[in-house]
Amino acid sequence: MDVQGLPKPHNRTGTRPLSRVQSVLYCDVSRRDGEQADWGHVESTKAQLKSLIVKSLRITDSTAADLRDDQPLIGGEMEIDSIDILQLILEIERHFGIKLVTGKFDQSAWKDINSLAAAVEEKVKEPKQA
């Protein structure tokens, strides 16, 4: 995967693994029974992305409900770096059954949760290639 355009990694402090209770709360976001679900609802996509972000980045001081739709992902208070983005790409692709990044990394899709949800929705609507 070409990672040109990703922000440089930094040493994020205060990150620790999810507690057992938090793991139980967020475990259902990774359930997928293999059938193609109807992901056409943008609000549902945003909610799923927020849960994936909290789970994947092991955010312990916020919940998915605390994340705003217009919250900056890159360069914002969440301090998401290139390693975090790679982790999120893998989680999003696995969860939605899509290929999110093909070729050069499009940083504009990662401006905020709204733009990321729009990018995911666009990829979900694309016909599957054999």
Q: Nutshell version of this structure?
A:
The chain has 130 residues and is mainly α. The chain has helices at residues 20-26, 42-56, 82-96, 113-125. It has a domain at 40-125: Non-ribosomal Peptide Synthetase Peptidyl Carrier Protein, Chain A, CATH 1.10.1200.10.
The coarse silhouette is globular
Unreliable stretches covering 5 or more consecutive residues: 7-40
Assign the CATH architecture of the domain at 40-125. Orthogonal Bundle
CA(first)-CA(last) distance: 20 Å
Class of the domain at 40-125 in CATH? Mainly Alpha
CATH T-level topology of the domain at 40-125: Non-ribosomal Peptide Synthetase Peptidyl Carrier Protein, Chain A
CATH superfamily of the domain at 40-125: ACP-like
The share of residues in extended strands comes to: under 5%
Topology (elements, then pairings):
Blueprint lengths: L19 H7 L15 H15 L25 H15 L16 H13 L5
Please tell me about this protein's structure.
This protein has 130 residues and is mostly helical. The chain has a domain at 40-125: Non-ribosomal Peptide Synthetase Peptidyl Carrier Protein, Chain A (Orthogonal Bundle), CATH 1.10.1200. It is built from 4 helices and no strands. It has helices spanning 20-26, 42-56, 82-96, 113-125. α2 (42-56) crosses α4. It starts with 19 loop residues before the first helix and ends in a 5-residue tail after the last helix.
